[in-house]
Fold each of these.
Amino acid sequence: MRCAWRDWGSQFRLLTPQPNLASPKLLALTKAAIQPIVSALRGWYERQPKHVQDNFVALKIGEEVDISGNYYFYPGGNDVCREHPTNSSLDPRYGRNNSKGLYGGLAPMGYNLLRTLGLRDVGGPPTRAELTQGIQHYFGYVAGAVAEAWPLVNEKELLFGHAGLVGDPLLLKWESPMVAPLVPTYSFYSGPGQPGLGTALAAYDPGHRRFAAGEFFCFGCQNNASKWTSAFDGLLFSAYGHLRYASIYNLGPFARLPGAVEALHTVLHRK
């Protein structure tokens, strides 16, 4: 694959294909890039008074880490990118269809991941269980690199891993970011999750069932305070686990919706 596509509200072309998340070179480069940043953050934290330290709630690694979600590939995609290297206006536009399964009806991905991990090098497209295992391997490595630079994040349970493209029964498993000591983190744009999240949390973290919303927004709520209140209630008081934090994506559009702001005040000031 020479390129890929992504859809964050609208489609755009990526100049690089889906990375092999098990590649030793990729992992080494990731460690080399992330450890100086973590060390700088550690230095800042250690200089702060306790009341400031107490407001530091999470160090999140990853931004919707997945395979075939934030990098998807059209059949014949190499020809499209080769023939029109700087003009994406002629690119296919139909994108993923999640009802068609793990790859959204597009080209399967993850073969190199399986080969690198020694899982297999023959057979059909990678399964959701295999891709979930590969993502867990990535999270485990990066979490270890972070903890090596700042052990306190493990001791205080401040390390979170943000996975993408999860969902039952067709997409990646909810277990994708469940690698000790990470608090599993997800994007919530279509409701508060599924029962499979609760089942996975009960097995992974039976005493607390902790999770986080690395991204959250209610596009269907528009400016309706009642709908926003229901959306907040579903997330903050989840039936599946205990929410550690939620990050509204994005604050600008949210702040321009008086009904959304009113709903947040209602939920936070409820007795």
Note: The CA atoms of residues 215 and 243 lie 13 Å apart.
Amino acid sequence: ACYTQQTTSISTNMSVIAFPGPFQSFYREQTALKFFIIFVLAIAALVAILALDTMVHTPDASGFSALEFAFSSKEARKVVLSWTPRQIAMASFSAGFHFFFLILYVSFLTLSASWASQQPACPRWLVVPASIISLLQPIGGIFDAMLQSLNISTIASIVDGSDPPSSGPTAASSFALIHDIILAVAVLVSLIVAILQIIHVRKHGSSQSRTAHSTPATTPVGATGSTGQSHLPLRDRLL
């Protein structure tokens, strides 16, 4: 019986043993508070970036993203030359502000994907991929940093009257595409596991409630029960 219990315990925690995330200790205490602070800061930075994006919207440029996905020096030149001097200053500031934003969203998505890999509701086939996705977020941030550096260089070259290197806008657009894919996968995995975890907690809580009403309580005073979580709010049991 002892051997069977140990085997079950090892199987249940296989994700921790086989692929220990380096960020687990961060969210073991006060998880909701830490996630909330990073999330609010990231959303605030995103709103600021979207506001800056509207300031550089022209008939030839659908915002700052038009430069990120120019894919050629000719198209990048067309975008930058469509901006006024004030819009060029705003675009340059937006590129620099992205460095602050990427620190926030990389931190949040790294933690959320790592959190997702450790949840009971996470499908077994998704545990290791979610852990790997969490580790890929800093790499996505590096691609974003290189993208913004190339954007700043491209703007400076065109403003000075010279053409940017032909490979610059192409590389920048490739970096933007890679970083967007890495980011989108982390968001998708985190949302899926979060929804599954909410369903799991609600279902588990409902079954415990029915059992508690149909069976006389025999747990000594001060004990927490079999799970130790049934008395906790949904948010605490989820996180």
Note: The two ends are 31 Å apart (CA to CA).
